[in-house]
Specification:
Strand order of the largest sheet: 5-6-4-7-3-2-8-1-9
Order of helices and strands: HHEHHEEHEEEEHEHEHHHHHH
Subcellular location: Cell membrane
Strand content: 5-15%
Helix content: 55-70%
Distance between the termini: 39 Å
Family: Belongs to the ABC-4 integral membrane protein family. HrtB subfamily.
Keywords: Cell membrane, Membrane, Transmembrane, Transmembrane helix, Transport
Membrane topology: Multi-pass membrane protein
Oligomer: single chain
Number of strands: 9
Transmembrane segments: 21-43, 267-293, 314-344, 364-388
């Protein structure tokens, strides 16, 4: 039978197989590191993407809502929690007259039900096409046009019927398009013109579903979104609205985003700290393990030297063993991180209560490549000193040790 030459790679693989427990320990250490690097990078990247997406989708500097409903408005925007609240449409006209207000547009909110009358319980958002500056630009970018008469636009999280329709309060409408994912509550919302949503509200009211109380005015709206003039301070304009328009609360978008950014920054800091600590621990553990294992293998390497192996060859064997163990650990750790992070992305986002939007394919592949590179490198880097040291040992003296 033809004999194959004992290459550095074959010797390294044989040594790993001969000591599986030692190799498994090294693989596990690197796998933990790779898990933290890849999983942490995907988490932080997704949170930052979600934050950027939310900033782009808000579109308004101020949001004026009825007093006592600030948390409901934030629930709609951040969590897609269905809600409805109303004040007089005259409020929109009053807000538009406040100094510093460049544009003001009303919105109308309605909640569907988990009942036979509706396909599912979601947030319904009506906007005024004549004054809207928030929803339509987003729809134009994502859809490339406007919805036709009597048509709806669905967020990415909405389940549409096979025939391309949705039913709410026993009224069926065709869906013009399903919009791209934003990682905000708008993904679980359905958008329509003010005429359609008022007709739905009337249908719900006539069916005994009292979404509009008896005290609600006929021209009711739920919120007024405001874009301020250049040169005006958002907080100052908000104060002007509060003093000039009774019975309202004003949400300053930038303040809300700043609060979320603060929570996001703290979480990202924790994740980065944990990744850095695990990296340092992996380096320390491996740097301690390799000299110990090399000391146990002194006679083994002395035999290699007696058989004619050069010092360079010995260093290559040690580094190759470390590289193989690191590669196995890196692949194992990133694979486990992928199985944890990707299938449960929606759950992770909901548990963190922060906007969560995973990077695209290019971003994921780039993160994967960097994580594997760092994982693969940690073994050879930490074993280099031990490899050089063992290669310089005197063969004769090493063989005589213990006699």
């Amino acid at each position: 039978m033809k004999q194959r030459p004992l290459t550095t790679n074959r010797i390294s693989i044989y040594n790993i197989r001969r000591k599986p427990f030692r190799a498994a320990c090294l693989i596990i250490v690197v796998a933990i590191l790779a898990f933290a690097l890849f999983g942490g990078a995907i988490l932080t990247g997704s949170l930052k993407n979600g934050m950027n997406s939310m900033q782009q989708r808000l579109g308004a500097d101020l949001m004026v809502v009825p007093a006592g409903h600030e948390s409901d408005m934030k629930g709609i925007l951040l969590g897609g929690e269905p809600a409805y609240f109303y004040f007089s449409g005259a409020v929109a006209r009053q807000v538009a007259q406040v100094g510093g207000v460049a544009q003001a547009t009303p919105q109308f909110y309605l909640s569907s039900l988990s009942a036979d009358c509706c396909d599912e319980a979601v947030q319904l958002i009506g906007f005024d096409p004549g004054t809207d500056f928030v929803i339509q630009p987003w729809i134009a970018r994502a859809y490339g046009g406007a919805a036709g008469d009597g048509q709806l636009l669905a967020g990415s999280g909405i389940i549409i019927r096979d025939d391309g329709t949705l039913k709410f309060f026993n009224q069926t409408y065709r869906v013009a398009a399903q919009l791209e994912r934003t990682s905000t509550g708008l993904d679980n919302s359905v958008f329509m013109s003010m005429d359609i949503i008022k007709a739905l509200a009337a249908a719900a009211h006539n069916a005994g579903m009292n979404f509009l109380s008896d005290e609600a005015p006929e021209d009711a709206v739920s919120a007024v979104l405001v874009k301020i003039d250049k040169g005006y301070d958002a907080d100052a304009v908000a104060a002007g609205i509060r003093s000039g328009v009774p019975g309202v609360e004003v949400i300053v978008s930038q303040s809300m985003i700043s609060g979320i950014s603060g929570n996001l920054g703290s979480l990202v800091g924790y994740i980065n700290t944990i990744s850095a600590v695990l990296w340092i621990l992996a380096v320390v553990v491996l740097a301690a393990v390799f000299p110990f294992t090399m000391n146990e293998r002194k006679k083994e390497f002395a035999i290699y030297r007696a058989m004619g192996a050069t010092r360079k060859r010995l260093i290559g064997i040690v580094l190759n063993e470390a590289l193989l163990a690191s590669a196995a650990g890196g692949v194992l750790g990133t694979a486990i991180a992928a199985f944890v992070v990707f299938p449960f992305s929606a759950y992770i986002g909901s548990r963190l209560n922060l906007p969560y939007l995973q990077p695209g394919t290019g971003g994921i592949l780039g993160t994967l490549a960097l994580s594997l590179l760092l994982s693969f490198a940690v073994g050879p880097i930490t074993s280099l000193y031990a490899a050089v040291k063992i290669s310089r040992a005197e063969t004769y003296m090493t063989m005589r040790e213990g006699e």
